[in-house]
Amino acid sequence: MKRPPNIGLFQYFGDGMRGYSRVPAYFFLVIAWSTCFALACPAGFSQEGQKKSAPETTKKPEIAGKQEKADQPEKAAHPAQIELLETKVRFEANGNSRKEVHALVRIHSELGVRQFAQLNFDFNRSFESVEIPMVHVTHASGGTADILPSAVMDRPNPAVVNFPAYQNVRVKSVRILGLQPGDTIEYRVVRTVSHHPLAPDFWLDHSFDRTGVVSREVLELDMPASRTVQMKMSKDLRAAERQEEGAGDAAHLLYKWTVDGAANAPSDREAEKKELRITITTYGSWEELANRLRASLEPSENVVREFYPKAKELTQGKKSAEEWISAFYDFVSQNIKTVELPLGATGYKTRMPSDILASGYATEEDKFVLFAAIGNNYCGPARAGLVISPTENPDTDLPQPGMFDHLLTMSGYPSINVWMDLNLEVAPYGMVLPQFRKKRTLLVGPAVSDLWPIVEGEAPFSARQTVNVDASLGENGTLRAKVRYSMRGDNELVLRVAFHHTPKERWKEVAQLLSITDGFRGQVTGVSASDPYATKEPFSVEYELDQPKFVDWSKKPVRIPALLPQLGLPDPPAKPSSGSATAPVELGTPLEVETKMTLHLLPGTNASVPAGTAVERDYATYSSQYFASASTLTATRRIKFVLREIPAARAADYNAFLRAVQSDEAQDFTLEPAGSPSQKANSPAPNGTTPPKPDAPKP
Length: 699
Known about the structure:
Blueprint: H1 8-13, E1 80-91, E2 97-107, H2 110-116, E3 118-124, E4 128-138, E5 144-146, E6 153-156, E7 169-175, E8 184-193, E9 203-208, E10 216-224, E11 230-233, E12 241-245, E13 252-260, H3 268-273, E14 276-281, H4 286-297, H5 301-306, H6 308-314, H7 321-335, E15 337-338, H8 353-359, E16 361-362, H9 364-375, E17 383-387, E18 406-413, E19 416-420, E20 441-444, E21 463-473, E22 479-488, H10 490-500, H11 507-517, E23 523-529, E24 539-547, E25 558-561, E26 585-586, E27 591-600, E28 606-608, E29 614-616, E30 620-629, E31 632-641, E32 645-646, H12 651-665, E33 668-672
Parallel strand pairs: 1-10, 15-16, 21-27
Antiparallel strand pairs: 1-2, 2-8, 3-7, 4-5, 4-8, 6-7, 9-14, 10-13, 11-14, 12-13, 17-18, 17-20, 18-19, 21-22, 22-24, 23-24, 25-33, 26-32, 27-31, 28-33, 29-30, 30-31
Helix pairs in contact: 7-9, 8-9
């Protein structure tokens, strides 16, 4: 239970952008690079793509959405049901492969129509080809339709439209017009891989659907007997039908699995527990894979020497190795635009650093290569940290390039290593996303003594954020407020990325969402933000809003909350049947948060303010103060997280701390407008502080 970020927007988007790869559009809209080979999925995504551009990798997409409540048959638990899914994969000894997918899909609802109205298949034409020999539709009314090959479109992947160097990464798509609930789609897709950059090695990672979307699934695997191939299967997967064909160099081993879908759709957690998976690879070890990738990612000595003048230019006026690395990082991160392709989409084939620099854009792999070409002149050597976001165990999992989904950069100087993320463009030097910290990564490059180091990546500054609200209430009950955020740390990175990837003319929409998630229901009328590239300074956002009818002065008395965002604290640990908590409470990175409100009232308004609270523990402290002076109310709340986690044995103590904070946040101000009968109990004390109140319960 990791503490959610502490401002409403971040609670809305989740913990530290978990699951985030890169942000290509406003509002943290993440391009969900589809990795499915066989199943059709929503339009705009791949129906038969390769996970991380591996020669052969298969994974089932989730069919999103709940069952529509219209008059649908009770058995239609999914928008569409894949009644049959057949996948045939054949590998050759030289690493070439052919994959054929045959699918039969029944559409149950309008959501299913939208999902399958367009079939998309990602590929890289420099070493792959995709053919769609058949798309046949049987209508519920009894008619049929075949999609002609001329209707198939071949276009650059949307992520590379503006980047000519990567237009080999493409999408083949076919639109299915006139599709309706009750119709059935049958299609075949053939993908051929020839001369993959990592050949003659090959690998495959195939997961059978356990969500109930697929009724019957068949996988046929054909491998050359002359190659040494490691295979790993889930223990609950039935043994394959096995036979051998041919002799000598032409001998092939054939495997066939048939899996019937789950009768009842399980929960996501149950489906994960029941995962049926097959992995094969020709890589003998992770070290062998790392050495193979090093050949693609490490610039040659001649290339490094070529970039010495650039390195010298960037280090002018810099006196320490730390400053040198920071200068190289800032240059590559901010001046070379990240092309939003999944890791491995180019088969780990990289461009020449001089071409990367001249073009001003690059994939994750290419940004690393350029950084290494510059930085290795003064520091180094740079090494690539390949991240596996899902929890994997390199001690038992088979080595395969398709597992990686993010590339971090390690560089440094004697006895000091620095982790960096070149791909976000606006991440402060030395800062990586929270989900990558404390993870093991495969380290690729020279002088590697630990193949699976732990990513540190702690921010080189203390995490802190402040929120200041300056507001006023009018005679008609309208609230006008100016809200300013200033932050350092993980939440800073969230906002930097959001504003960086949002056109300035749409910043109001980001601020509107921020205001709503922080409890304001007014209309944002203006917004400004600091430069997302100014990573040496805290990031700040300021917006103005109007909220009509915030109060109704005809009601007496008027009660209003403090106009402050709720502080996000993690829930207490769940208690198992034994009655005692077993999991610690994870507080995350140490962080200090201060929120302050100043509310200007109409002259003559009397106000009663709640009592402040102070709670102190060794893991966190919290305090609040509330004042009324003349026609002004002020409120401040401060919380400081000191430790990263609280032992499970102290769950009761944390519960008391949490209740004290939540009780304080629930307190209201009471307002009596001018002309109302004055009540002494509701008047502020002569010194403008809180009138005496009964002692609050001690937490």
